[in-house]
Design goal:
- The protein is built from 5 helices and 14 strands.
- The protein has helices spanning 52-55, 58-65, 73-81, 171-181, 201-209, and strands at 2-5, 11-15, 18-22, 44-46, 68-71, 87-89, 95-98, 101-107, 124-130, 133-137, 158-162, 185-189, 214-216, 223-225.
- The model has no long low-confidence stretch (mean pLDDT 97).
- GO terms for molecular function: hydrolase activity.
- InterPro entries: Metallo-B-lactamas (IPR001279), RibonucZ/Hydroxyglut_hydro (IPR036866), UPF0173_UPF0282_UlaG_hydrolase (IPR050114).
- Keywords: Hydrolase.
Length: 226
C-alpha cells in the first residue's frame, strides 16, 4: 500500500483505489508548510479523537473532497453541527464495511476534548482490512494490553504508532506494542511538531532495529510503500 505522510499524525493510505486520510492537522503545522492542503485527496477521513492537533483541517478537507468522515459519536455530532453531512459514527468495538474494505474501531488510552474544552468522548484507534493489505492506526495512546486482541481478528501488514513520548507512547512502548499486534513494519507519527515531543531520529530507528523491527520516518509530503 502507498502511504503519504503529511506531518504530525496525519497520513493517507491508498487502498483498493480509495484515498483514506487520518487525523488532518496540516495548516497550523510549521513543519508541514510546504503541503498544499487543498490538493489532498480523500474518499474517507478517520478522526481518532477530538484534540485540535488531530481535527483542525477536517472541515476544510471534507468540504473540498466530499469525503465520508468517521469518528466517535461526539465527533460525529460535532461534524454535523459544522456542516459536514457525509459523516458516520463509530465507537470502540464497532465494525463497518465500506467499498475499500472494513474498519474496526478499538480503544486508545488517551484524553479527548474539543478546542473549546467540551467533551470529545473516548479516544480511538482503527484497524483497516482491505484487499491490498491490513493495518492498525493506534491513534494517540499509551501502551495497553488491549492491543494483544487485535491479531485475534486481523493479520496486519503494518502499524502506525505515536513515538514522540510525553503525551503518548515513546519508542520503548511502541516497540512492545509492535510485538503485541504482530508487526515488523511501523510508521512512526506524533513527534517533532511541538517542543515537548521532539525526538532523536537515529536513536528511535536504532531502538526499533535492535528489536528486529523496521521504523519508517518519511519526510513530510513523501509517499512510501508499506
Amino acid at each position: 500500500m502507498k502511504v503519504t505522510y503529511y506531518g504530525h499524525s496525519c497520513f493517507s493510505v491508498y487502498a483498493n483505489e480509495k484515498h483514506i486520510l487520518f487525523d488532518p492537522f496540516i495548516t497550523p503545522n510549521e513543519l508541514a508548510k510546504e503541503v498544499d492542503v487543498d490538493s489532498i485527496k480523500a474518499d474517507y477521513i478517520f478522526i481518532s479523537h477530538a484534540h485540535y492537533d488531530h481535527i483542525l483541517d477536517v472541515e476544510r478537507i471534507a468540504k473540498n473532497t466530499g469525503a465520508k468522515v468517521l469518528g466517535n459519536f461526539e465527533i460525529y455530532n460535532w461534524l454535523l453541527k459544522n456542516g459536514i453531512e457525509n459523516a458516520h459514527p463509530i465507537n470502540p468495538g464497532g465494525q463497518y464495511d465500506f467499498d475499500f474494505g472494513s474498519v474496526k474501531c478499538v480503544i486508545a488510552q488517551h484524553s479527548s476534548s474539543f478546542i473549546d474544552g467540551s467533551y470529545g468522548d473516548i479516544a480511538c484507534g482503527f484497524v483497516l482490512t482491505t484487499i491490498d493489505g491490513n493495518f492498525y492506526y493506534s491513534g494517540d495512546t499509551a501502551l495497553t494490553l488491549d492491543m494483544q486482541l487485535i491479531p485475534k481478528f486481523t493479520t496486519l501488514d503494518f502499524a502506525v504508532f505515536p513515538i514522540g513520548d510525553g503525551l503518548t507512547m515513546g519508542v520503548q512502548e511502541a516497540v512492545e506494542a509492535s510485538n503485541l499486534v504482530g508487526v515488523t513494519k511501523i510508521l512512526g507519527v506524533h513527534y517533532d511538531t511541538f517542543g515537548f515531543i521532539v525526538m532523536d531520529h537515529q536513536k528511535a530507528e536504532a531502538g526499533f532495529k535492535n528489536a528486529g523491527l523496521q521504523l519508517f520516518l518519511p519526510k513530510i509530503g513523501d509517499t512510501i510503500d508499506l
